[in-house]
Amino acid sequence: MLRLKYREYVSDAAFRAAFLFSTQFKMTKKSGINPKHSKLRGELAELRFMTRAAELGLRVIKPWGDSSRYDFVVETGGRFLRVQVKSTTIRPDKHYVCPIGRGRQKPYAIGDIDFLAIYIVPVDTWYIIPIQVVCKIRNGISLSPHNSLSKHAVYKEAWHLLRGE
Q1: Residue 117: in which H helix or E strand, if any?
Q2: How do strand 115-120 and strand 79-88 relate by DSSP bridges?
Q3: Which residues are paired to 81 by β-bridges?
Q4: How many Cα atoms within 13 Å fall on the side-chain side of residue 28?
Q5: Cα gap 59→68, rounded to integer Å
Q6: What's the first-to-final CA gap in the chain, in angstroms?
Q7: Rg (CA), the chain
Q8: What domain range includes position 141?
C-alpha cells in the first residue's frame, strides 16, 4: 500500500532508488560512510529526509543550487513550507546536541524557514521543529530521543506538522 501511494509522485527508477536507500543504507561507520564528514553527512541526511517525507505522502521540492536559506519545500494542501535539514551525531552526555547556527550568519528567523528537520543519525530519529521554537535558540539544541518528558519531545517524529495537522 505504501508503494502505491509513493508511486503516485515518482518514477519507477526513483522509487527503486529511494526504497533501496531507505531499507539497506545506514549512516554508520560500519557501512563505510564516515558520518563525521559534515558535508557528506548533510547530503545523506537530505536524502533520508526526502525518502521519509515521500514515504509519508508529502510532496518534496528541492531548490536548484544550495544558496537558499532552506534545503526543501514541502507542499501540502496548497501551502508551501520551507524546511532546513540538519543532522547530528554529537552526544556529550545523555542527550544529542545539534548546532543550529548558520556559521557567521545571523541566527534563523521567522522569515528564513518554516521548520527545522533534525536527523539524529545514531538512533535514526527525526525532530520536526517549527521556526517559532528554533528562533529562540542561539547556538545549539539538545534533544533526548529516549526521554518522552524532554523539552522537545513533542517534536520527535512530528511529520504531521508538515501536513498542517
Answers
A1: strand 115-120
A2: parallel
A3: 74
A4: 8
A5: 19
A6: 22
A7: 16
A8: 2-163
Complete DSSP assignment for 137-165: -SSEEEE-TT-TTSTTGGGBT-GGGGGT-
Residue 152 to residue 34: CA distance in whole angstroms: 28
Please report the DSSP string for 51-107 in residue order. HHHHHTT-EEE--SSS-SS-SEEEEETTEEEEEEEEEE---SSSSEEEE---TTSPP
Of 149, 129, 145, the C-alpha closest to 137 is 129
- The DSSP element (H or E) to which 119 belongs, if any, is strand 115-120
- Residue 28 is classified by DSSP as S
Q: Domain of 142: which CATH number?
A: 3.40.1350.10
Looking at the structure of the chain, the number of domains it has is 1
- The answer to whether 70 and 102 are in contact (CB under 8 A) is no
pLDDT tens for 66-96 read: 788 899 999 988 899 999 999 988 888 888 9
Cα separation, 29 vs 26, in Å, equals: 9
* 152 has pLDDT over 60: yes
| pTM of the complete model beyond 0.85 | no
Q: Decide: 118 and 86 in contact? Cβ < 8 Å.
A: yes
